[in-house]
Amino acid sequence: MSVNSVINEEDQYIYKTLKRFKLVDIRDNYKDLIEEASEEKLDYRQFLIKLLQYEDKGKKERTLERLIKGAGFKCENTIENYDFAFHSYRHKGKIMELASLDFLKRSENIILIGPPGVGKSHVATAIGIKACEAGKRVLCVNANEFIDELSNQAYQGSLKKFLKKLSRIDLILLDELGYLKMDKEKESLFFQFIRHRYEKNALIITTNLPLERWGEIFTSQLAATAILDRLVHHSHIVSITGESYRVKGKPREARNNEPRS
Hints:
Elements: H1 3-20, H2 24-40, H3 44-71, H4 92-99, H5 102-105, E1 109-113, H6 120-133, E2 138-142, H7 143-155, H8 159-166, E3 171-177, H9 184-197, E4 202-207, H10 221-232, E5 235-239, H11 245-257
Parallel strand pairs: 1-4, 1-5, 2-3, 3-4
Helix pairs in contact: 1-2, 2-3, 3-6, 7-9, 9-10
């Protein structure tokens, strides 16, 4: 048997075994890693650590990619690209505190309040991405679409199963609550959802309505109070005021479209 055939058999064994053990990053890169170890004159222990670190890094990257994809973010906004200066840094300390994810450990809620365009969804998404980076399961969904899905699950007789599935999600982001008024049925289903997560899992809600106007979302102020009682308890409320980011961009765009002399 030639030397090349022996090497090929060894490579096949290494490749198949690493594939079976699902060590995909080592499997695809072990030859290069061996060369690097030889050039760096690593001993066996150092080489083993290098292999493990390479695989660990790859697994974390794939897990993050899967979690972000599964979350359903409309766009991948981050804390780093949020323009705190636009609102004179009024909320920076609180938002950075929330981005540390301590609220998630305590199963607390966040309610972000403000008019359209001030960055509520950006902040919610940025915190959601931080949660994904920490290995947490996240779901980001439009509030009205989510409530419609609750109604659909109830109609199919699978609401209990659906709520149990949602309980395995560490953080749910409900975006734009307050644009449509709920009927009695949807209000009851939303209350069940809130009660099911109460003190067990975290929730972020963005809304254009201040809390005292939540009677406009539900059938009565009494219903709004019952829901808010569980939402506001153990919650962080951030009210963002100011000019819209989208409005801010219009003058510059207009200038860019003007004829040049």
